[in-house]
Every structure is written in structure tokens, then in C-alpha cells.
Write a structure and sequence with these properties.
There is one protein chain. This protein is an alpha+beta fold. The chain is 25% helix and 10% strand. A two-stranded antiparallel sheet has the order 1-2. The longest helix is centred in the first third of the chain and has 11 residues. The model has no long low-confidence stretch (mean pLDDT 76).
Length: 61
């Protein structure tokens, strides 16, 4: 048996950690929202749209 081999009864434990992966939460995508007037992507904490100048309402999500 190799130095790093696990006995067969121990291999099942790894399935708990090696199973399905959670869907990655992409902070970058959540950091932008669409301007209601022009449809441009605007940073969620911006006070106004950089493209058309429309004032945006800050909202908690």
C-alpha cells in the first residue's frame, strides 16, 4: 500500500467533502445593477448613473 493511500473504509468519508460543489457566489456580478433610464450597469453604491446622470435610489438587498 502506498504511503498516501487510505483504506477502503476511509475513502467514503471523503465523499462528504468531495461531493457536489456549491454554486459560486460572484460578488462582482452582485456589485452592479441596471439603470432604470438607460439600462447601463451601475455600481450598487453609486448615487447616479455614470452614463445618463439619472439619480439612483440606494436600496438594501
Amino acid at each position: 500500500m502506498g504511503r498516501h493511500s487510505l483504506p477502503s473504509e476511509s475513502r467514503g468519508v471523503l465523499g462528504v467533502f468531495g461531493g457536489r460543489r456549491k454554486q459560486r457566489d460572484d460578488l462582482f456580478d452582485r456589485s452592479f445593477r441596471e439603470c432604470v433610464d438607460c439600462g447601463a450597469d451601475v455600481y450598487v453604491l453609486a448615487e447616479d448613473c455614470k452614463d445618463c446622470g439619472t439619480a439612483l435610489e440606494l436600496r438594501a438587498s
